[in-house]
Amino acid sequence: MRKLFFVFLIIVIGFPSFAQKSKKDLLKEKKQRINALVKQEEEGVISYHQQSAFGIKLASDGYGAFFEMGKAKSVKKSLLFQIELTERKHPKEEKQSNVNIPSSPFVFGKINYLYPLKLGVQQQFLLGNKTNRNGISVTGNIGGGVSLALLRPYNLEVNDMDKGGRKFIRYESSDSSLYSSSGRSTHIADSLLFTNSSLLGFMQVSGGGFTKGWNQIKVTPGIYTKASLRFDYGKYNEQLSALEVGVMAEMYSKAIPMLVYTKPSQYFISVYVAILFGKRK
Fold first, then answer.
1. How far apart, in whole angstroms, are the C-alpha atoms of residue 6 and residue 94?
2. Which of 36, 44, 66, 244 has the least C-beta neighbours within 10 A?
């Protein structure tokens, strides 16, 4: 009985000091974690759970914008989910104006505007971390996804010889193949109307404007892949400020008509540069 009493006394006396010691250990461990995070921040180590960013890009065949959400798998790997909308320009597009009347510029022979809408996933790999807070972090991104080619018909504004005034026509539409002048019908092939420069003054052509063709959009599905290098120069861990350069390849289910006098293509390759701004947490 006396032995049990002494054991109980030792436990009662020793427990507060044990609890106090555990509390000190917890505070010490917390302080060590904080110091480690401060050290990482000073050394430029980027550590986060999630990030979101908005970017604008200039490509060799157009321009656009994108939004991404990222999830860190480790310090060196992340998964990026992106949505992107761009406008692609054909390299042979050339704007011109009608010299006979004041008019908005138009693109000679243009059939469709092309807006690729992309939904994809990228794997991000850390290639080089910052040497300090003001350094640059380099990552490599590779991935791909689905691309939807949104085709908006290009409209021309021309004289309406029958009713007077002006009207809008598009390539291969019913009203682009028939014109009348002085009560006499004149048939003009679609390709001539959109490509024959000698008819431009007679028709008094001008560009249809941004508001036309949205109710006539057609969609051609496809896929894409891209690879890039991203240079993050943000000063703080919770801010994303980066420059990205990369190459992108797209393939669609059928050829995309853009200009009358060029062969439609279903394959596109472009290089681009982009600026990103975002936040991490």
1. 99
2. 36
- For the stretch 57-68, pLDDT in tens is 999 999 999 999
Q: Does residue 188 lie in a domain region?
A: no
Asked if 149 and 64 sit in the same domain, the reply is yes
Whole domain around residue 100: which residue ranges? Answer: 48-154+208-280
Residue 140 CA to residue 45 CA, distance in Å, equals: 16
pTM, two decimals, is 0.71
Give, as one character, the DSSP assignment of residue 214.
G
**What is the C-alpha separation between 148 and 229, in angstroms, rounded?**
25
Backbone φ and ψ for 80, nearest 5 degrees, come out as -115, 130
Contact assessment for residue 108 and residue 252, using Cβ atoms and an 8 Å cutoff: no
b/e per residue 81-120 (b: at least 16 CB within 10 A): ebebebebbbeeeeeeebeeeeeeebbbbbbbbbbbebeb
87 vs 137: which has the higher pLDDT:
87
Question: 């080619």: which residue's tokens?
Answer: 149
Same domain, yes or no: 10 and 146: no
> CA 128 to CA 56: how far, in whole Å?
24
Can you spell out the DSSP letters for 91-152? Answer: TT--EE--SSS----EETTB-EEEEEEEEEEEEEEEEE--SSTTS-EEEEEEEEEEEEEEEE
Strand partners, 215: none
